Amino acid sequence: RMAGHSGVGRYLRSLLRAMAEAAPADLEVVPFLNPGQDAGFLPPRWTPWVLPKEIPVYSLKESLGFPAALQGFDLLHVPHFNIPWNPPLPLVVTLHDATYWRFPASTGSTMGGLYARLFLKRSVKVARRILAVSQATAKDAVELLGADPGKLEVVLNGPPDFVQPTEPPQPGGEPYLLYVGNFLPHKRLDVLLSAMNLLKVQGRRIPLLLVGKEDERALALKRSRVALGDLLQFTGVLSDRELGERYAGARVLVCPSPWEGFGLPLLEGMAWGVPGVAVDSGAAPEVARGAALL
After folding, report:
1. Residue 275 predicted with pLDDT over 70
2. Model pTM greater than 0.85?
């Protein structure tokens, strides 16, 4: 149900593809889909279970009503913290970060912040096993969420499996900076755009491509930085192929967030050979391992 999300969705799609190739022949994986959800991302090996009625992600129906659909299974893996409140079978949860604990305003509402904090704590408490995507996230799980260290396993995210562009950008093309991600407050795009404005004042004009869903926060960002004009270029959501082409043509990948649980764009940029600039905190040092300017 979360395959269409950004970071969690990419994790989920990649995990299902990898398991289809590597899992034992007698293992059956059943992805749950909402009615009408596109199943084109699924490998042929896995047959989805389409729910009779939609269960929205991050909803009361999900936390209280979803267990009725889980009868007859041996194990439940939830790729984020939005778990059933009382899982009826052993639970494995993937913890990507404790962002909403550190930055509750990024949920967009007081209720959203309360929900996220409640379910972050609950997920690590009731899970039989916790998969943390970095040592930084594992540390947060213990220190901020009270997770039992004995239940934690650090499983780093792997590199992207993007299709290589058939015609890579030619040297000498217009240089640009690249940002990939959402526009939540904790990403600190305000700091990045202030730096862009400083470069402009100094007479150094280089465009910034921002890849991500153009939601209200993106629109507010546009309105707040009218002075930058055409130096800001919002692409919206891109296909994997289009995203790969943007990575391949970028002069520098910028990651201004002060705290990431992993930071997939940094890894993706490295896979494409793009120099990265990131903040020396969170999982960035662990992911970059000396291959980015921190």
Report:
1. yes
2. yes
